[in-house]
């Protein structure tokens, strides 16, 4: 089903990329996405737009506001809310957003707003908008709020030569994790307390960004101390991939991260600074089974997909029993079912969570 959409580059702040849905239609506004041999040149860490770009014209049609089914705010709301944890508003971007919203309102058209990133659970003061967030708190969810997929690249395509590695079932499940976790780091706790104080003082968002690191650390300890599972953990004291400055170092860390997944059966997936897990999407992409720690999260297409079929689902309050839940899930799978589930995890990522899969099914939100 092709959706007619309206947007206007005149409302795009200078130097800001259009939202992912629009990028293939406005290549002149995506300076790093230069046309090359009829395709797109993409920075190494943001490649997913390429496959979506190939089918974008079959899914969406750019039209006038009068003919459109929906209007799309051309830039991510992150540019409006600012780029710091204090959520200092970008006044010029906010003014552009409000002007665009007012124009759409006068035309009596529904509007779509994308808000991606760690803070995207925060309030957007636009009534009746369809809002697509990466971070969403279930208890605060409104009827027109949905979850946007979160991933940078197809790890199998770019790091595994497009060959999905399938593991055979062993007696004990092997649980993998490569990443940052709070190991009693008081600087992290202090940052959290300071931010909470700032937000309370300014009547702002009180969601604790570093709580995810504490929960990860708890889960890792429970799993490490259990005889029911084998562990394959590489604990880092910082978010090495995002903080590495040199491309060579980024690539090295990325390869280690993917290798950790390839050598594991299950991957611990717990929220980071936002109320979502990027690792959850990467795990499914690699055909591995997520151990999803639920912190009142919302997942994409939850109205179509029973996500508990594809992962070990652990409520955050049940972390002390996480090893038992993993072992029970693993023991209930036959060797054939274990193999099949790995293929299913990869396929559901391709069909629903890759950019081409997400936008191919986009119409189902409405």
Automatic annotation (TrEMBL):
Domain Exostosin GT47 intervals: 245-324
Q: Which GO terms describe its molecular function?
A: glycosyltransferase activity
**What InterPro entries would the database entry show?**
Exostosin (IPR004263), Exostosin_GT47 (IPR040911)
Coiled-coil boundaries: none
What protein is this chain from?
Answer: Exostosin family protein
What is the species listed in this Swiss-Prot or TrEMBL entry? Fischerella thermalis JSC-11
């Amino acid at each position: 089903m092709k959706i007619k959409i309206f947007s206007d580059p005149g409302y795009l702040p200078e130097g800001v990329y259009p939202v992912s849905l629009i990028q293939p239609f406005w290549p002149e506004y995506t300076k790093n996405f230069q046309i090359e041999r009829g395709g797109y040149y993409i920075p190494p860490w943001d490649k997913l737009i390429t496959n979506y770009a190939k089918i974008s014209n079959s899914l969406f049609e750019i039209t006038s506001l009068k003919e459109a089914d929906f209007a799309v705010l051309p830039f991510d709301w992150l540019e409006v809310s600012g780029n710091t944890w204090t959520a200092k508003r970008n006044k010029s971007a906010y003014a552009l957003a409000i002007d665009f919203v007012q124009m759409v309102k006068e035309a009596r058209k529904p509007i779509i707003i994308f808000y991606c990133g760690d803070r995207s659970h925060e309030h957007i003061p636009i009534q009746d908008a369809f809002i697509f967030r990466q971070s969403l708190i279930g208890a605060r969810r409104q009827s027109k709020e949905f979850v946007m997929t979160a991933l940078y690249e197809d790890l199998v395509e770019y790091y595994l030569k497009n060959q999905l590695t399938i593991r055979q079932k062993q007696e004990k499940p092997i649980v993998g994790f490569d990443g940052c976790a709070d190991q009693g780091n008081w600087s992290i706790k202090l940052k959290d307390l300071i931010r909470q104080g700032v937000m309370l003082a300014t009547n702002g968002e009180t969601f604790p960004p570093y709580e995810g690191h504490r929960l990860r650390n708890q889960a890792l300890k429970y799993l490490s101390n259990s005889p029911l599972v084998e562990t394959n953990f590489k604990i880092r004291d910082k978010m090495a991939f995002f903080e590495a400055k040199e491309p060579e170092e980024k690539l090295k860390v990325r390869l280690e991260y993917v290798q950790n997944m390839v050598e594991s059966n299950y991957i611990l997936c717990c929220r980071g600074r936002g109320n979502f897990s990027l690792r959850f999407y990467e795990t499914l992409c690699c055909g591995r089974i997520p151990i999803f720690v639920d912190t009142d999260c919302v997942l994409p297409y939850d109205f179509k997909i029973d996500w508990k079929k594809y992962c070990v689902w652990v409520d955050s309050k049940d972390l002390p029993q996480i090893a038992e839940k993993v072992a029970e899930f693993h023991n209930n799978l036959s060797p054939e079912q274990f193999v099949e589930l790995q293929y299913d995890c990869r396929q559901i990522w391709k069909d629903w969570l890759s950019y081409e899969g997400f936008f191919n099914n986009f119409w189902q939100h409405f």
